[in-house]
Design a protein that fits this description.
This protein is α/β, with parallel strands linked by helices. This is Phospholipase/carboxylesterase.
């Protein structure tokens, strides 16, 4: 997969940086560096094209996921992160996904896989309208920062609440913050930084 790896302090965590629809592996690097400049970062471009825009998985329309492709792409991305861990000499348990929108959504798919051992994530503008009745992943010991939108034209508030519930119901420690619309304003980035480095 197309990616950028920037080595940080030896033994420090590694951000897996995941852009939104239409983004590239360059978009969120400034955010990652602002959150903690000592961490390494692995910024990955989505492998799927939708009308010339990069995404991490296919969909049939706004909020209508191609569930088969989501499953396939989530495993593909997790496998790529595991291969990168060997190549660049880091541990997968030290990986912290940072996602915006579509990047947050594929991060949730990875986090909910039994074989995934991530312990933290920062997810901005997530949406995960997937039936999880057969998923019992225990997330106690997992910490997540969620940034959710009031009046978000893409993610209704009840869907944002569902994302909070996905993590809380599985025992994760959840910190969530509300912003206006489908956005990532500076103030929530600073809040995320404080949460991460506390």
């Amino acid at each position: 997969m197309l990616h950028i790896f920037k080595e940080g302090k030896k033994g420090a965590p590694v951000f897996a940086v995941l852009h939104g629809t239409g983004g590239t592996e360059h978009d969120l690097i400034p955010l990652a560096e602002m959150l903690n400049e000592e961490y390494s970062l692995l910024s990955i471009r989505g492998n799927v094209q939708e009308g010339g825009m990069n995404r991490y998985f296919k969909r049939h329309g706004e909020g209508q996921y191609d569930l088969e492709d989501l499953e396939f792409r989530g495993k593909e991305l997790l496998d790529f992160i595991e291969e990168s861990a060997e190549k660049y000499d880091f541990k997968t348990e030290d990986v912290i996904p940072i996602g915006f929108s579509n990047g947050s959504n594929i991060a949730i798919n990875m986090i909910l896989r039994e074989e995934c051992d991530f312990r933290k994530a920062l997810l901005f503008a997530p949406l995960y309208p997937v039936d999880l009745s057969d998923n019992n992943k225990d997330l106690s010991g997992f910490e997540v920062f969620l940034s959710l939108g009031k009046g978000d034209p893409i993610v209704p508030e009840e869907e944002s609440e569902k994302v909070v519930e996905i993590f809380k119901s599985r025992g994760a420690a959840v910190k969530h913050s509300w912003v206006n619309g489908h956005s990532l304003p500076q103030e929530v980035a600073l809040e995320a930084r404080d949460w991460l480095n506390q």
